[in-house]
Write a structure and sequence with these properties.
It is an enzyme of class 6 (ligase). By secondary structure, the chain is an alpha+beta fold. It is built from 14 helices and eleven strands. Helix content is 47%, strand content 13%.
Length: 358
């Protein structure tokens, strides 16, 4: 498994700062590692960068890599006069700037306001699969549970200087892309490839890199890539996402597909509900299809993957970390608490920088 995290680049005072090209030049001058991952890379906007871990099997190793990646990105940012903040959206009013790249400029030209406003930061989890058939089976199994992963990670209550009333407004902004959101079941690898071919044939998106499903088969690695989550304020919450995704993948391979899978239209409603209230309201129970307290639905997820967590030695840690999130709150809850204590936009971002790099 591995994790990719997107971060805002901000001034020391807290405002978004378009210095990604300078940060990336500093990163390129450092010694490279031949293993996949472990890089600081460009993202769509000059006000953000992305980090990635190397593939690993050990949860503690993954947590150490996530923390190291955050510290490295922040050190590189400081050389450009900036810091990094793990926030799903910027609380400030900002006109973000597309990275100087041919493909990014083509996306901006084709998608207009959707591209212009797309300064959002997510957390992407990769988990290895043997082939596309195995990957499609995992994707289909993940469908009703992606909403719970979003709720646990929600970390974007602000947008363009205003409080949105959402725990994850990033997911609402991201949902403007034509390929974003939940999917219907694929069935097998051939079914997945047919969908991708149909999307490309429509010429609506530039390439398969613009397949923005909540979860997809990676075009770069032999993995399922789960993209539904906001970037997590706390590094351990990002590792919780990865550990749960790995357990869901293991569970998928030993569980028969449901006779009547939940329709994509219904999943969109479940996901919207998770984005709206995160872990502070109700989520929809995948087993019952009705709302229940978020803590109960999160517990249902843990129970669903319990055997896989036990086999990996992850159960005790996951139960503790889930307890932390439910008691402390996700990133959105923490941001709103800082607001209640009197933090303005700058102070909120500065506190987020401290947590990001702790």
């Amino acid at each position: 498994m591995g994790v990719e995290e997107e971060f805002l680049l901000v001034t020391p005072q807290g405002e978004p700062y378009a210095v990604a090209p300078t940060v990336l030049r500093h990163a390129a001058a450092e010694p490279s590692d031949p293993r996949p991952g472990g890089d600081v890379e460009k993202e769509f906007k000059q006000e953000q960068v992305e980090t990635s871990t190397h593939p690993c099997t050990d949860r503690d190793d993954l947590l150490a890599q996530v923390r190291d990646g955050r510290r490295r990105a922040d050190a590189l940012a400081q050389r450009a006069g900036a810091r990094v903040a793990a926030l799903g959206t910027a609380p400030h009013v900002v006109e973000s700037t597309v990275i100087p790249d041919r493909r990014a400029n083509e996306i901006r030209a084709r998608f207009g306001q959707t591209a212009r406003e797309q300064l959002t930061c997510g957390c992407h989890v990769h988990v290895e699969v043997a082939d596309d058939d195995e990957g499609a089976r995992v994707l289909d199994h993940l469908r009703p549970w992606n909403q719970v992963l979003l709720a646990l990670s929600a970390n974007s209550p602000s947008w363009l200087g205003a409080s949105t009333g959402y725990a994850s407004y990033r997911s609402q902004v991201w949902g403007r892309w034509p390929t974003a959101g939940p999917t219907a079941p694929f069935g097998d690898g051939a079914g997945y490839r047919r969908v991708i071919a149909d999307l490309l044939r429509s010429e609506t998106v530039l390439d398969d890199g613009m397949v923005y499903f909540d979860a997809r088969l990676s075009a770069r690695y032999p993995t399922v890539e789960v993209r539904v989550a906001d970037v997590c304020l706390d590094a351990a919450d990002a590792v919780l996402q990865a550990t749960l995704v790995r357990a869901l993948a293991e569970t998928a391979l030993r569980t028969d597909p449901p006779a009547e899978p939940v329709r994509a239209e219904v999943l969109r409603a479940w996901t919207w509900r998770a984005a709206r209230s995160g872990v502070t309201g109700d989520l929809v129970s995948p087993s019952a299809g009705t709302p229940r307290p978020a803590a109960d639905v999160v517990g249902e997820l843990v129970d669903h993957v319990r055997d896989a967590l036990v086999e990996a030695g992850d159960l005790d840690w996951v139960e503790r970390q889930v307890g932390h999130v439910l008691r402390r709150g996700n990133g959105a809850v923490q941001q709103l608490a800082w607001r209640a204590e009197g933090a303005d936009d700058d102070a909120l971002v500065q506190r987020a920088v401290d947590v990001t790099t702790a």
